[in-house]
Amino acid sequence: MTLASVFLVVLASLMHASWNLLAKRAASVGPIFVFAQNLAACVVYAPWVAYLLARGAVAWSWKSVAFVMLSGFIHLGYSLCLQRGYRVADLSVVYPVARGTGPMLSTIGAVVLLGEIPSAAGMAGLALVVAGIVLITTQGNLSAFHRPGGHAGVRWGAATGGLIASYTVVDAYTVKGLGIAPVVLDWFSNLMRFFILAPLFLSSPRRALAAMRGHWWTAIAIGVLSSLAYILVLGALSLGAPLTLVAPMREMSMMVGALMGMVFLRERVGPWRLAGCAILVAGVVLLSLA
After folding, report:
1. 61-108 pLDDT, tens digit each
2. pLDDT tens digits along 214-231
């Protein structure tokens, strides 16, 4: 795995943690907020996509169109599931469960469907990443999942993680196997979600605008950051980075989230959380060397 690929994935992790913190603040808005962030992403990245299409940089086929549409449906389910999870449970439960189950299932999918064979170092790194996530989240106390909202967080987090694994494998094949540019895949996926969710807005524009009052800038920020973060990940895959390494490396976002909580939210960071960060870093190092 090249240094450029590692840099792209690390930068994507920073952006991913940032937009999830923003999404938690707008969890009460519901599906109309997902519509707004998709709208923002479509508008912001339209010039880039138009430029690539005008240059003929994308070779379309029925297979590539089918996979782009499949990606859009999976991402829609992911966005709605994540938004619902943040509405009924804590960020500290939903986020790590989703990010923890996602790479494990992605790795299995990459081995079964893409024929990738993870090395011993890669598997050890994956195990350390998952262990680090658990420690960061629970601080050594697994009863965190039994607090109010804990069970709901596990259910919605696991469902979100399954969708993460699904779109990761589908998108990896679309980028690496079918040659679709990352920004083109992400943009058309957002466009499809925009049209699917548009009836929510059109059925009652006044109610939708009222629900979004005070949340537009958050939606724009998430639309920009979430798309760019994922484009960077797909870019790493297009550079030849194996999915079995990229998927778990993305979980650095959990460490970034813990550090953001310490610096910006003044959250208490005890020895268990610090140990989790150290273990997670060790896992990422192993993955980058695999």
Report:
1. 999 999 999 999 999 999 889 888 888 877 766 777 777 676 666 666
2. 899 999 999 999 999 988
- For the four alpha carbons of 161, 259, 229 and 235, in that order, the dihedral sign comes to negative
3-state secondary structure string across the chain = CCHHHHHHHHHHHHHHHHHHHHHHHCHHHCHHHHHHHHHHHHHHHHHHHHHHHHCCCCCCCHHHHHHHHHHHHHHHHHHHHHHHHHHHCCHHHHHHHHHHHHHHHHHHHHHHHCCCCCCHHHHHHHHHHHHHHHHHHHCCCHHHHHCCCHHHHHHHHHHHHHHHHHHHHHHHHHHHCCCCCHHHHHHHHHHHHHHHHHHHHHHCHHHHHHHCCCCHHHHHHHHHHHHHHHHHHHHHHHCCCCHHHHHHHCCHHHHHHHHHHHHHCCCCCCHHHHHHHHHHHHHHHHHHHC
To the nearest 10 degrees (0 to 180), the angle between helices 150-176 and 91-113 is: 40
When pLDDT is averaged across residues 163-176 and rounded to a whole number, the result is 87
CA distance 172 to 116: 12
Mean per-residue pLDDT of the chain: 81
pLDDT at 83: 85
